[in-house]
Write a structure and sequence with these properties.
The complex is a heterodimer. By secondary structure, chain A is mainly α. In chain A, 42% of the residues lie in helices and 3% in strands. Among the domains of chain A are: 2-144, no CATH class; 180-266 and 665-757, no CATH class; 854-940. In chain B, α11 (300-315) runs parallel beside α12 (333-357). The chains are: A mainly alpha, B alpha/beta.
């Protein structure tokens, strides 16, 4: 065991340093622990003694007593268990792991050789029977010491979960190259197609017995394009122009549509609409949800990043890479750097249990949210199901899950919540390059305030240090501080650190964002280009990664005297976990050992995930039940086809690259299907978030692969994809009912008509504001939540923002800029199925319930918009006498709301309403409300 | 006129609109139901799709309160007493590497019937003689969303109408001024609106959600419930809206969504009068509120939901569902299961007593269940995993035999071994209790007749009175 010091690299230093603080009596235990933890870091480094023990005591018994039935050479392998490789013995057979290093309880081999259960006695009685007591004890010692095992090599027997059938599932097959010209189109449809998309759709009609309905009327098409592409209704100028051109130049209708589509795609309004789609997928929210529900005051930067990405048509592969590993990508300048750092908010904005008491549980829950969102958003896979066991339906094993977990557990997530307001798991933020010129939240601090806070902080730290020293090693404190006082001091310290960390030296507020960075490495990492810039050596908020660099090197010991860095507090939200593994106060690598005490003197446990490391497999998802360590990596099925092992860094960059690699069978299909869904109200694969075996099959497999292939060829351009779809004839079909086709294909799977869809909550609100002339099309800076600052939503103390502020939010800007908190939603959106931001949701609900009718009839918002529209109508058409202007006014409000002219029946109905209430403002308000309330306004055909 | 076409159109394509317009042909609701191949309903005097309908079978109960314990409660700690499991606690379980985990709680027999119940449900135990426990429930997919949706719609593979929507379709509702189907605080995950949706059934049968995600019901409300103008003026405005809607329906010739909007407006208009009264618990005596646990830290929320449910069924709502969350006890079973039980025990018991006292229990069906059960073997130190092979639920009230246990799981509560009951059987039985035949309660969609139980489902006659 002494030879432990032969371990190479910094790990040895770590352990040496760490051990030296312990009483000699603890030495053996400490060494044992250190050794176990080292196995958890990566490939096993075995000492001579460990090897000798294995070779002398363990291997001969295995060979002699077990291999006959449990080795690759055995005829029939019993129980699916192989004991002739390390991998085999750790993974175990049908019953679970045979050996779990350090854990006698969980090691079935031990229970088997002890004969402690009637069902499992090994070796069997008729094969020589129970082993001698001393041999059993050797095995126990071996397991307790960490089950050192030099037998490399893969174990052949696959898990009991047979995935071969699931692997045949269509979405895991390579994309097929599609020859459109060979699409067989029935003669009666031969002239119908305009584009390749149309050809692939039309090729299915004859077989399925449907034929297309007529094309949509021009104003129906205009309204559809406007809402689908921008989430807003057409303006009256657009209606007039489109109608006039359509009628006057019938030969140029395709060009007219093309031009219109082009102008929409080039608008900010397009990006606001499509950015909102992506925010649904990204489970975007401005608070942590669950019981604490602390606000995320910096989340809005991600919202703006997404909108910008759609506006600039950022190639989707780059968009993917940035959201997963933007901090690790090279950047040409500060502005790009800032953009990429903000992109990683994607991983930090999840619903997380801030109040979880066990930091280890918290860490794995956070990683689980990240695995869930990455696999579901980009791949349509429900990998999170494999957290506790192999996926029951899809070929994703718990090992695969754990390989991914290693990536995210090696990542520090900076969601930026202060410690003082109820978050047990505080975290810092990402500091954005000052030169990027980004707007900042908050006004900063005056130099007097900084001085005052710093002095207070130093005083408290002094108190804290002495309190800690007095209480160290169970000593009796003489400072007269109660336990509560010690906790209070600690809370105040973290709050002050948090506040001071948000300002520059001159007191101005820093530009901060949510995001991630790699944890400190366990071996020295070369600095990446771009890290060597001014400011790169200063600790940032969160204390970990500098913009553009790998983590701060090998994690040298901090000053032994105290936790603060020289030069004052610059690690605002920087919790204990962001400091290196060398923190005095406890072995961070050792999750299950309580720390001697943190600065406050409180006993506190660390998460055990403080540096880049592989994750152990948690049997049945329980953190108490630690299985073998799985090298972190990208499972082949989810990436480029073959498993990718990560050698350096967290592995996020490798993961990101694998998602957009040419071999990936999922990413491009999933996104083109999402876009199709957003254009047609239904995906080619209906289960847009689930491409696994419990999801659906594509209705048009060739079309899906054609679109995906073309999408990649076009440089992953979302705009080009939308353009292709918008200019197809199938998109242009009317939503007319057809008895025959409906009888055959009521769900319109074969696209014989366009699906009418209910507008989403944001479109209904924005549409009304647009019609009433009240819509402010300029984006507001930041967000209400950003301005509110830190703290919980509602509650009795320290609240950042009240429930009423969020639910009652009434602003005139677009809905995407309204507060997007979890659990509490603006009332203006809640009747119409607002996004569920707990997880990825690529498809909205569209209910049809009385609550919506009540909203239209009785809400102040609809009343206000109706009155504003009435005023517009009266102003536009004052008329010589009230009666003379009726028709103009009616045409005006119809055009504003339904984007068409009234029919005769509608006109007489309006007339009788006006007659009943007088041709007054009140009457026109009533008419306007009636139009907003109509089913037609709520649907786009 | 379109009407002549309407009358001759194939029955599959009939919609509410057809029926509303069909008076010119001399048809009413009766014609609709007959033509649509729906053999359930005899015409009431009202031709509204929500009008109460006569049922083909004799109804044992008129209304339903569905208590959905989302997350799956542990049957072996609550209703399925297993001495053998306790005896073998710690020994190897049925799955490789598993260990039996005995129940930490004492069971005792209660009432005349001698029903075994755990000490976690002391108040409910006082009503043991009212309960009909089914101990042999099974479902297929051990994942919450799928199982939750299956419990509510019969299948997780497709979007299908929910149980409440089918009920409303089959029975109509007794109070035309209130929604016929209300869901209190349903989850927004686990299938979300699908669980109270109407799918291809007309939208008027969709459930009305109050609150969500198990957020305390006291924060939930029905927004915009009060009219801001005189009713007569509002009616004129509403007539204008309905004219626009009917115009659209005429143009589209078939559009169930627009039809749904029309119905929802009429219901909303009437709800304004009656709903506020039903939702207002202030009219209840302090003693009643206390009995339900309102004001107590643990029971306030469930107490409010149960009292609301009683007020609603009393007012004529056909189907009320209450969701109570957080039963997914993978960890910390010892503390968390007790907490969940403490939250629901008193309110549910109080509701049973209250309904009985008001003579409503005899024709109200109460159903208590999770989406599946939990394993009798341990997960981690003190948790239980999902178990679809056996779980327990209970019913009470109109039409079910009180004080009995139906079906049996093995000695550990791991797998149903006697009279296993599938979700389709439960659905068939619930419909039978309401006087509906699950095989003939059909709706024609896409060229075929759909039913809640698809091609499955057997009524458990043994538990019916």
């Amino acid at each position: 065991m002494k030879s432990h010091q032969q371990m190479p690299g910094s790990m040895m230093n770590d352990k040496y340093e760490w051990r030296s603080r312990f009483h000699p009596a603890c030495k053996v235990v400490a060494l044992l622990m250190a050794w176990i933890s080292s196995t958890a870091i990566g490939q096993e480094k075995l000492s001579q003694e460990q090897l000798q023990f294995f070779e002398a005591k363990i291997r001969p018994v295995l060979v002699d007593k077990c291999y006959a039935c449990h080795s690759e050479k055995a005829g029939e392998i019993q129980g699916g268990l192989l004991l002739d490789t390390r991998e085999g013995i750790r993974r175990g057979g049908d019953s679970g792991p045979a050996v779990v290093p350090g854990n006698l309880q969980a090691s079935l081999l031990i229970s088997a050789i002890r004969y402690s259960s009637d069902d499992l006695e090994m070796p069997p009685k008729d094969e020589g029977g129970k082993l001698a007591e001393n041999i059993i004890r050797d095995f126990e010692t071996w397991v307790r010491m960490g089950a050192a095992d030099p037998r490399d090599g893969a174990s052949k027997v696959v898990t009991r979960h047979d995935t071969s059938q699931a692997r045949q599932w269509w979405s895991y097959q390579p994309l097929k190259s599609v020859n459109v010209s060979s699409a067989k189109i029935a003669t009666q449809h031969a002239d119908w197609p305009l584009t390749d998309i149309d050809r692939l759709v039309a090729a299915q009609w004859q077989r399925t017995g449907v034929s297309p309905v007529a094309d949509a009327e021009p104003l129906v098409l205009l309204r559809r394009l406007r809402f689908d592409l921008t989430g807003l209704p057409p303006t009256s100028e657009e209606i007039a122009y489109f109608e006039q051109q359509w009628n006057s130049q019938p030969d140029l209708r395709n060009e007219l549509i093309e031009k219109f589509v082009e102008s929409l795609l080039n608008s900010r309004e397009y990006a606001e609409r499509w950015g909102r789609h992506w925010l649904d997928v990204a489970r975007y929210a401005e608070s942590s949800g669950k019981d604490a529900n602390l606000v995320y005051p910096h989340a809005w930067r991600y919202r703006d990043y997404v909108i910008d990405a759609f506006e600039k048509d950022k190639p989707f592969d780059q968009f993917v890479r940035e959201q997963i590993a933007g901090d690790l990508l090279p950047a040409k300048n500060d502005s790009q750097r800032a953009d990429q750092l903000i992109a990683t908010s994607f991983l930090a904005i999840g619903e997380i249990p801030i109040n979880e008491r066990n930091p280890r549980q918290f860490a794995v829950d956070l990683a689980d949210d990240q695995i869930a969102v990455v696999t579901q958003a980009f791949l349509g896979q429900t990998a999170a199901c494999a957290r506790c066991h192999d996926h029951r339906f899809d070929p994703i094993s718990q090992r695969d899950y754990t390989a991914l977990a290693g990536i995210f557990l090696s990542t520090e997530t900076k969601y930026g919540t202060p410690g003082a307001v109820g978050g047990r798991n505080r975290a810092g933020l990402v500091e954005l390059p000052a030169k990027a010129g980004l707007p900042v939240v908050g006004s900063g601090l005056s130099s007097a305030e900084i001085r005052q806070k710093q002095q207070k902080l130093e005083r408290l730290q002094q108190q804290q240090r002495s309190a800690r020293a007095q209480r160290a090693n169970g000593g009796q404190a003489t400072d007269g501080l109660s336990d509560f006082d010690v906790v209070r001091i600690s809370t105040q310290v973290s709050q002050l650190e948090f506040e001071l960390g948000f300002v520059n030296d001159d007191g101005s507020a820093k530009a901060l964002a949510m995001g991630v960075s790699d944890r400190p490495g366990s071996t020295p990492q070369p600095r990446r280009p771009g890290a060597n810039r001014p400011g790169a050596n200063r600790p940032g908020p969160g204390g970990g990664l500098m913009p553009g660099g790998r983590p701060n090197g090998p994690g040298r010991p901090q000053q032994p005297g105290g936790p603060m860095r020289p030069g004052g507090p610059r690690s605002p939200g920087g919790p204990a976990q962001s400091r290196g593994p060398m923190q005095p106060g406890g072995p961070m690598q050792q999750p299950d050992e309580p720390m001697a005490g943190d600065q406050s003197g409180r006993r506190m446990r660390s998460s055990g995930f403080e540096s880049i490391a592989d994750s152990p497999l948690f049997l049945r998802g329980s953190i108490e039940n630690v299985g073998e360590t799985v090298p972190r990596g990208v499972p082949g099925l989810l990436g480029s086809g073959t498993d990718i092992a990560i050698r350096q860094g967290s592995g996020r960059l490798e993961l990101a690259n694998a998602l957009v690699s040419a071999e990936n069978t999922l990413t491009s299909r999933v996104i083109v299907n999402r876009v199709w869904h957003w254009m047609f109200g239904r995906g080619l694969v209906e289960s847009v978030d689930n491409f696994g075996t419990t999801g659906g099959q594509p209705s048009h497999p060739e079309l899906l692969d054609y679109l995906a292939t073309r999408f990649v060829q076009n440089g992953w351009s979302i705009k080009q994809l939308i353009r292709d779809i918008a200019l197809s004839r199938v998109y242009r079909l009317s939503s007319n009912y057809d008895e025959t086709c409906f009888a055959v294909d009521p769900d319109n799977t074969m696209l014989w008509r366009h699906n009418s869809r209910r507008l989403e909550a944001e479109e209904i609100r924005d549409g009304m504001l647009a019609a009433s002339g009240r819509l402010n099309r300029l984006p507001p800076p930041g967000s209400l939540i950003g301005r509110a600052g830190d703290g919980p939503i509602g509650g009795e103390r320290l609240q950042a923002v009240t429930l009423e502020q969020i639910e009652g939010a009434t602003n005139d800007f677009r809905s995407i800029y309204l507060p997007a908190t979890r659990s509490v939603k603006p009332a203006l959106l809640s009747a119409f199925d607002p996004p569920d931001n707990s997880a990825t949701h690529g498809a909205r609900d569209a209910t049809n319930v009385p609550a919506q009718a009540l909203f239209m009839l009785n809400s102040d918002f609809v009343a206000d918009q109706s009155q504003a529209l009435a005023d517009l109508a009266l102003k536009a058409h004052p008329g010589a006498s009230p009666q003379s202007s009726f028709d103009e006014r009616l045409r005006f409000v119809f055009r504003q709301v339904l984007n068409r002219a009234p029919s005769h029946t509608e006109s007489s109905a309006a007339k009788s309403l006006v007659k009943a209430t007088g041709n007054s403002r009140a009457a026109w308000t009533s008419i306007a409300r009636g139009l907003f309330g109509s089913a037609e306004f709520r649907f786009v055909d | 006129m379109k009407d002549s076409k309407t009358c001759s159109r194939v029955n599959a394509l009939l919609t509410r609109r057809d029926v509303l317009q069909s008076t010119a042909c001399g048809f009413g609701w009766m014609a609709f139901s007959a033509l649509a191949g729906a053999q359930i309903a005899q015409a009431a005097d009202d031709d509204s799709p929500l009008a109460p309908k006569k049922t083909p079978l004799k109804p044992r109960a008129k209304r339903v309160i569905f208590l959905c314990m989302s997350g799956a409660p542990s049957h072996v700690d609550l209703l399925d007493y297993k001495p053998q499991l306790n005896h073998d606690s710690g020994k190897p379980g049925p799955r490789p590497g598993s260990q039996w985990l005995g129940s930490k709680w004492k069971f005792a027999q209660h009432g005349q019937s001698g029903l075994w119940m755990s000490e976690l449900l002391p108040q409910l135990a006082k009503h043991a003689d009212k309960l009909c426990v089914v101990s042999s429930m099974q479902t297929d997919v051990p994942a919450h969303p799928q199982a939750f949706i299956k419990l509510h719609t019969g299948t997780a593979q497709f979007v299908r109408p929910s149980l409440g929507a089918w009920t409303l379709y089959g029975l109509g509702t007794e109070n035309q001024n209130l929604p016929g189907f209300v869901s209190l605080t349903p989850p927004s995950g686990f299938g979300g609106a699908t669980n109270y949706g109407s799918s291809f059934l007309p939208a008027v049968y969709q459930g009305t959600r109050i609150g969500h995600n198990d957020r305390p019901i006291r924060f939930a409300s029905v927004p915009n419930l009060s009219a801001k103008q005189p009713v007569a003026d509002q009616r004129k405005e509403l007539d204008f809206i309905q004219t626009l809607n009917r115009e659209k329906l005429n143009r589209d010739s078939f559009n169930p969504e627009v039809d749904g909007v029309i119905q929802s407006y009429e219901l909303a208009f009437r709800m304004q009068r009656e709903m506020p009264e039903v939702l207002d618990l202030a009219g209840e005596t302090a003693a009643t509120q206390k009995a339900y646990g309102i004001g107590s830290e643990q029971c306030d929320d469930m107490g409010r939901k149960c009292l609301l449910a009683r007020r609603m069924v009393e007012a004529g709502v056909r189907f009320v569902e209450i969701t109570h969350g957080n039963w997914d006890h993978h960890f910390s079973l010892n503390t968390k299961l007790k907490q969940s039980c403490d939250e629901v025990d008193q309110p549910i018991a109080a509701m049973l007593a209250d309904l009985a006292q008001r003579d409503l229990l005899k024709d109200t069906l109460i159903v208590w269940t999770g989406e599946f059960g939990r394993t009798p073997y341990a997960e981690g130190q003190e948790g239980r995993d999902h178990n679809t092979k056996a779980f327990s639920m209970w019913m009470a009230g109109g039409g079910v035999k009180p004080g009995i246990t139906y079906g049996r799981s093995d000695d550990y509560g791991y797998e149903a071994v006697e009279n296993p009951v599938q979700i389709a059987d439960l659905h068939a039985t619930m419909l039978a209790i309401l006087g509906l035949d699950h095989e003939s309660l059909t709706y024609r969609h896409a060229g075929r007749d759909f039913r809640l139980t698809d091609v499955k489902g057997n009524v458990i006659n043994d538990i019916l009175i």
